[in-house]
Amino acid sequence: MDCIEITKELIKIDSSNLEGANDAVNFCNNILSSSGLKTEIIENDGFKILICTIGNGHKRIILNGHLDVVLGKNKQFMPYIEDGRLYGRGSADMKSGAAAMLSTILKLKNKSLTCQVQLQLVTDEETGGFNCSKYLADNGFVGDFVICGEPTQLGIGIQAKGILQIYLEFIGKSAHGSRPWQGDNAIVKAYEAYKTITSLPFTKEKSEFYSCPSVNLSKIEGGDVYNKVPDYCKMYLDIRFLPEQDPKEIIRQIKESAGVEVNVHSRGDAVKTKIDDMNVKKLKKSISRITNGKSEIFGQHGSADTRFYSKYNVPSVEFGPIGKNWHGDDEFVIIDSVYLYEQILMDFIKNNQ
């Protein structure tokens, strides 16, 4: 099977749940092992991870792909091709990228490589990546450069914003709804604090790839009935901060302006790969050689498993085929771009020894 045939078979596996994602790992493992390659399956908290390494040398390039997908309708697990596009859940995000990585390993397995190439296929990126890629990075499965095969339209996502999810609690004073001046409305206090937060110094900062961080008021909890001034409100914020920003300083500014404690729900590291990184330059050249065009370099607003490697100062990028509507009803990948993607990976590896 070539990379498109592998993608089609992977789409048929509903990997929106743990059992299905593990089945996808087993499917890929069978392809690799039947081709004579040595593989390793690691299981962490029930999540399977497939590792396969080829080549020799001190330098290691990691190809990281996730086989899990978000929920989809039954028909989305029945792949079909139309107008040069392969449709189906995970076609773009990111079973085509993972399939091309696997196919790259198969095509290079008998080549004389003076660097190591390690394929990592994981099963929980869509739910945070904590059981797979984070586990790998924390346990030394790192290298000199990491490519996560997210759909990037054959561009290179070299950075990603960090994640800071927090909640703040506001205490007011209850009163009858007909006499709001006798109370202290906690919901109003929360909203006024939110407006102040969106004007704090950290929100005005920018960097090479970003015009500003983002602050999303994602949830409000407060109030009981129409005719009562609410005396409690809980406000949730999802902040995506710039790679150069310190989340501790962001928390300090918010606490000082809001006058309440800042409770951290979760925090994710930013990806800080530099545009002048040697491997980024080599990847750009490979893209140019294969596509006869220039590659776009950009920063991602969301996050992927790259952040777990970047935490250990391993240059990491998102780089994948051309697709659209991932997480949507009509998700597809451009078939020709998957073949190009595979060629680019092979060229990059062959010229990076």
**SS-based class:** alpha+beta
Ends: how far apart? 28 Å
Q: What amount of the residues lies in strands?
A: 25-35%
In DSSP terms, counting alpha (H) and pi (I) runs of 4 or more, how many helices? 9
Task: Supply the number of structural domains.
Answer: 2
Radius of gyration: 23 Å
Unreliable segments of 5+ consecutive residues: none
Major beta sheet, specifics? 6 strands, mixed
Largest sheet, order of strands side by side? 1-2-6-3-7-15
Q: Can you give a write-up of this model?
A:
- It holds the Pfam family M20_dimer.
- The chain is α+β, with helices and mostly antiparallel strands and 353 residues long.
- It has helices at residues 3-11, 18-34, 91-108, 133-138, 186-197, 247-258, 278-291, 306-310, 335-350; strands at residues 39-44, 47-55, 60-66, 80-82, 85-87, 116-122, 145-148, 156-160, 162-171, 214-222, 232-241, 263-268, 271-272, 297-300, 316-318, 323-324, 332-334.
- The chain folds into two domains: 3-160 and 270-350, Zn peptidases (Aminopeptidase, 3-Layer(aba) Sandwich); 162-268, Alpha-Beta Plaits (2-Layer Sandwich), CATH 3.30.70.360.
- The strands form four sheets. The chain has a six-stranded mixed beta sheet with strand order 1-2-6-3-7-15.
- Helix 5 (186-197) packs across helix 6 (247-258).
- It is elongated, with a radius of gyration of 23 Å.
